[in-house]
Amino acid sequence: MRKNYGPLYAAPMAAWMILFFVIPTAIIFSYSFMTKDMHGGVIYEFTLSAYRALNNPTFFKVAFNTIWVAFAATILMVALAMPASYYMARSKHKNFFLLLIIIPFLTNSMIKIFAWMGVFWIDSGLLNSFLLWAGVIDHPIRFLYNTNAVIVVTAYTYLPFAILPLYTTIDKFDFSLLEAARDLGASKLTATLRILLPNIRGGITTAVLFTFTSAFGNLAIPSLIGGNDSYMLSNFIRHEFNIARNWPLVSSMSVILTIMTTIAVLIFMRLNRSPVEVARENREAVNKPAGSTARAAGTGGAV
Amino acid sequence: MTGAVQSVLGKIKGIMNTGNKPTGKFSLSVFLVVLVFLYLPLAILILNSFNASKSMSWEGFSLRWYNELFFSPSWVSLWKTFGNSAVAALTSATAATVVGTLGAIGLYWYRFRAKKAIQIAAFMPMLIPEIIIGVSLAMLFASTKLPMSLFTVILAHTTFNIPFVLLVVMARLESFDFMIIEAAYDLGATEYQALSKVILPAVFPGIIAAFLIAVTLSLDDFVVAFFVAGPGGSTLPVYLESRLKLGIPPVINALSVVIIAGTVVLAFLSRNIVKYMFHSNK
Amino acid sequence: MKGSQVAIQNVEKRFGDFQALKNVSLDIKKGEFYSLLGPSGCGKTTLLRIIAGFEDPTAGAVLLDGRDVVPIAANKRPVNTVFQTYALFPHLTVFENVAFPLRLRKLPGAEVSAKVEQFLELVKLPKEGKKLPAQLSGGQKQRVAIARALINEPSVLLLDEPLSALDAKLRQHMLIELDLIHDHIGITFIYVTHDQQEALSVSDRVAVMNEGEVVQVGTPFEIYESPAHPFVAHFIGETNYLSGTVTEVFRDKHVRVDFPDIGTLIVYEDKPLKAGDKVKVTVRPEKIRISLDKPASLAENMNLLQGRVDELIYSGFQSKFFVRVNEKAQFRVFRQHVKFYMDEKAISWKDEVYIWWNDNDGYVVEVGE
Hints:
The structure holds three protein chains of three kinds.
Chain A: H1 6-31, E1 34-36, E2 42-46, H2 49-52, H3 57-90, H4 94-106, H5 109-120, H6 126-134, H7 147-172, H8 176-183, H9 188-199, H10 201-216, H11 220-224, H12 233-244, H13 247-271, H14 275-287, H15 296-302
Antiparallel strand pairs in A: 1-2
Helix pairs in contact in A: 1-13, 3-7, 3-10, 4-7, 5-7, 7-10, 8-9, 10-13, 12-13
Chain B: H1 2-15, H2 25-49, H3 64-71, H4 76-109, H5 115-127, H6 130-143, H7 150-174, H8 179-186, H9 191-220, H10 223-228, H11 236-244, H12 251-269, H13 273-277
Helix pairs in contact in B: 2-12, 3-12, 4-7, 4-9, 4-11, 5-7, 7-9, 8-9
Chain C: E1 6-15, E2 18-28, E3 33-37, H1 44-52, E4 59-64, E5 67-68, E6 79-82, H2 94-104, H3 109-122, H4 138-150, E7 156-160, H5 168-185, E8 188-193, H6 196-202, E9 205-210, E10 213-218, H7 220-225, H8 230-235, E11 240-250, E12 254-259, E13 263-268, E14 278-283, E15 289-291, E16 302-314, E17 318-324, E18 330-336, E19 352-358, E20 362-368
Parallel strand pairs in C: 3-8, 3-9, 6-7, 7-8
Antiparallel strand pairs in C: 1-2, 1-4, 4-5, 9-10, 11-12, 11-14, 12-13, 14-20, 15-19, 16-17, 16-19, 17-18
Helix pairs in contact in C: 2-3, 2-4, 3-4
């Protein structure tokens, strides 16, 4: 019998994650219940004032705006990504198309934002130039610095993140099932809704989780593309951290942001299993033959 | 008008010949919209990088922005942050790859008590907004009086890279047979020999993919670096964000083209990244 | 003789609530080709993994030449395994896969080459050394796995369902080759399989396992011809299975058994029986003769029944008949096609037939109250 080296392999990672993830998260959580120090930092006195401070219309407006942006961008992305990745998976040139999606996937976000600033720019930006040329408008329009612009650029930035998981799932889908459904009398739409969609749920989950959480906590896009009325929670956190230096408030907002994301993730996972969950379950299944007593139930069935 | 659009669609469909597979016009149209959506802004950006004009209206071909980017002293600070980004990306990706790969092997092939807890702690950062990681680490570093610098950026980037390395390497582990490790022991290998001669070589493509993803994520990060970068430790995205708040200098077009060129090369090198990152179970 | 003697002594294995092995004891002789045969879940692979050192027994000992090897780690045991999935290292060539154990021992290159070539020769793959496992066929992978497991010159070779991933024809072929290799190197082979044909055709002895227990140990002949347990009779080959009551013990070693649905038949007695015992009896289908005509003269030691063909399965070298004797009793009868044109008339569906067998071929497998 050999020794169980699992803990040894996992130890560095466990130590790292405790030091740089678990402890900082605990710090944020505890700071959110402490008293603000005027010069940044906190005074170790318990108070709920950081949470009470959140009970104001501005915060609610920002929170609502954050949810709206993330939600709208996610819907937009999935609506585009589903048919597009279906087309890619069925195409003869799928490898080439895949490459066409991977390039924007790997392109630096700041460059993507910058590119859209060029498209939306009021002074001879692409969109204004085109609309003026086509005679749709007489004067340039200010496209930048509002919530809709934030939604479009968010969708643009993360669209490849929605397409890639959907593509890999649809690519593995057995298309003869659609033919079977059609053969049995289903319409195209019915076959898509009742056969294709249930079978690519894993990909949809991954796509939605990736895009929603990314959109939800983004800072660069609302800060460069958004205006004062399109403030998101991350702008708020940045402002309180850097300018107001109100650490308890930053912490309480972070806690709220985390809780909101977690709720969104949980709601969605109830509808569907998350990729992490699926990966874990799969690992569990494969894991049974591993390690010391791991063979357990595995051998029972499959000797 | 619609007739023209349809005939164009028909022609494109001819070019993108899909064989006899039944792909609908609808999905093709959406795919084309997606391609235009994804590439039009980048195409404009590339075009503008060669524009002689300071504004965005075309005034002829010129390399002046490239010249300015590479040789003008006013962009020295850009290159300094570029260097910082490169250092942070390579260091944090290396650290995360080492730590994450070992972690993946431990979590994937062994059973032990704290396994589930470690797994959750290691995957969680992927699911919570990055800004939380930035803020919480900033508070940790401030509370421990660790001065913000490039080093703190490297620590933070390693932290958010580890989950991705873990995901990718585990996906690779899933694709091969645990029995090869038992075979190695059976044939007389020690734990170290099994690791160095069997496990790591077999996982190697996954390790490379994980490393490339980590580099990409680190270069892409703005929000975490924004909170934890100290004086002299700013990364390129942090620098760009501060510049773009003031306007859109045409030099950035040239910079973008350079970076996109690098991205295209990377994309060719790492097409199978997708396979590891988004491999779906079943 | 080469190889080691292996003794399994009162081995138990629990996985949580599940008892995979219940007090298993076996003695495997030096140089034997020994099979562990049983359905999936019977514990045979667990037992093999305990011998290999991948699992620790919950209780009991594993002795190799008299020495308990339970405390010895898998990589230190003089035992090697051929894995069900081959477990070839995907990143190494065939040559390097086979050379792996020698490289671990840091043998000089020339010695490694010579030895690897010798073993690739043994498994008839002398020219495939430079290929990667992914470029090999299933049968070739199997050969590489065997060469790799043998190159360390283990004293016992463990084979875990080594042929299960191959197609039927290749399986036959590899089985013969395994037998030849065993004859050639002469070490002890312990062979796990769920396929009775494999086990019967190559083994010196077979241990039949069921639900974590060894049910019977014997030569293939003994296992097939005189199953000691209803499970063995059922599991090995096809059989007819009858329940009845002993009415008379007579002659030498024979009993009359009354079967409620059939009548009285004569059965061989290999266990002490007395009148009134409830018994279960098996008769192998290939031991029963079948004909349209009543045999003209029949020896006294024959059991004769009359019935009608319910079902007929033609399978090339033989035909299987399902003969209904009455509403409750049906017999399987196999008839080998020895000639292209049979002297006898062809039997077809719904024909009235006679079936008969020698009383020595009816066999008591279980005695109840």
